[in-house]
Design brief:
Number of strands: 12
Helix content: 25-40%
Largest sheet: 7 strands, mixed
Structural class: alpha/beta
Strand content: 5-15%
Bound molecules: pyridoxal-5'-phosphate
Number of helices: 14
Radius of gyration: 22 Å
Shape: globular
Length: 403
């Protein structure tokens, strides 16, 4: 069987998730999985080879020093490039590190970035605590992109989007943002953690840069931190140069774990979707619930764009209690759950719950007067049992002890 990508027809996603990044043969045969290669020092034959490798490694991906990646990391980079439809991918020690390095690679003091109102909250904090004091102007635009033209500034060099948005999954018209950015000489970067290269593909929709917190669905087992940045050929070099300058690297053990997780990515996502849709429909019928947030639901404001641009949905589901519900009641609901773990992050095989503070995480959208929002990650457990757990926790609110 040939491993040469050039002489075979393009494969479907599920085949690529199995086939990519497994090339290693030994005398006798080859294992199914790529070997785990740990290295700091890489040895060269002679001074001439060492000099040649040093000269070429800025432009080419070569195994020349552990910090620039090992064959294990390269196998994962290639897998993510396949998923994202990218020229190349770089790995970072966390999703947030990937976000920060992306901003630093393409922006310098004096430049401006337009950031979507719905970005992952620590990205917003990074803008406030670092970009602004560093001289990079950061302006937030509506999550659906509707006001972006009026927010444009002469120094805008990047549009930074996240679609669907964190916590309540607002959709935006990414091809439109790409057109606007490119007409004005700016780059479009998108956080693609929700889509994970399977459900949503920003580069195919016109973005230059796509970021994934591999901590979530790519790793899939709540035991690894990692971020990936995948770019087009034109956008690649600044990212590569900046990541090398800052010594950004990942442990090969972690790269190996993420590669292992990705093998089952499509299978897991299908199950997360099926379970989440069952829970969503059930929640929509509960009187305590004002709204369920999920763009796959007909009636969601982002549903038409979701149908156009997304290949499915995942296990993420948030809902808003009826206005007038107190945060204390929302917390009592959370504390009453038995099958949902309480904690940050998501994308593992297990169900999670956390309170979402919408007033703190949005500055353009006005969330005053709304009910408390709770984010669920629906895992691979029996959906009927998850629903039973949610029902018991909601029912317990009615049995509130008197004031
Ligand atoms: C979790 C997350 C990140 C950050 O990933 P970490 O690996 O936790 O640093 C970035 N963007 C989004 C949308 C996320 O959900």
């Amino acid at each position: 069987m040939s491993d040469d990508a050039h002489d075979r027809p393009p494969r479907g996603l599920q085949t690529r998730l199995v086939e990519q990044g497994r090339t290693q043969s030994y005398p006798g045969g080859r294992p199914v999985n790529a070997p785990l290669v740990r290295a700091s020092t890489v040895l060269f034959r002679d001074t001439q080879e060492q000099a040649q490798m040093r000269e070429r490694r800025g432009g080419e991906r070569l195994f020349t020093y552990g910090a620039r990646g090992t064959p294990t990391a390269f196998a994962l980079e290639d897998m993510v490039s396949e998923l994202e439809g990218a020229y190349r991918t770089r790995l970072f020690p966390s999703g947030l590190a990937a976000v920060g390095m992306t901003l630093l690679a393409y922006l310098k003091p004096g430049d401006g970035v337009l950031m979507a109102d719905c970005v992952y909250e620590p990205a917003r904090q990074l803008a406030d605590s670092f970009l602004k004091p560093y001289g990079i102007e950061c302006t937030f635009f509506a999550a659906d992109g509707s006001d972006i033209e009026s927010r444009w500034k002469p120094n805008t060099r990047m549009v930074y989007a996240e679609c669907p948005g964190s916590l309540v999954y607002e959709m935006c018209d990414l091809p439109r943002l790409a057109r606007l950015a490119h007409e004005r000489g700016a780059l479009l970067a998108a956080d693609n953690t929700w889509g994970s290269g399977v459900l949503y593909r920003p580069l195919a929709l016109g973005a230059d840069i796509s970021i994934i917190a591999a901590t979530k669905y790519l790793s899939g087992h709540s035991d690894v931190m990692m971020g990936t940045v995948a770019t087009t050929r034109d956008a690649w070099q600044p990212l590569q140069d900046r990541a090398d300058a800052f010594g950004m690297t990942v442990s090969p053990d972690d790269a190996w774990l993420v590669l292992r997780g990705i093998r089952t990515l499509a299978a897991r996502l299908e199950m997360h979707e099926r379970h989440a849709l069952k829970v969503a429909q059930w929640l929509q019928a509960r009187p305590e619930v004002a709204r369920v947030f999920c763009p796959a639901l007909p009636g969601d404001p982002g549903h038409a764009l979701w149908r156009r641009d997304c290949g499915g949905t995942n296990g993420l589901l948030s809902f808003e209690f009826q206005p007038g519900t107190s945060q204390a009641d929302a917390n009592r609901f959370i504390d009453a759950l038995r099958l949902f773990g309480l904690g940050a992050s998501w994308g593992g095989y297990e169900s999670l719950v956390t309170a979402a503070n919408m007033a703190r995480t949005r500055s353009v959208a006005d969330w005053r007067g709304r009910g408390p929002v709770v984010r669920l990650h629906i895992g691979l457990e029996e959906p009927a049992e998850l629903i039973e757990d949610l029902a018991a926790a909601l029912d317990s609110l009615a049995r509130r002890p008197g004031p």
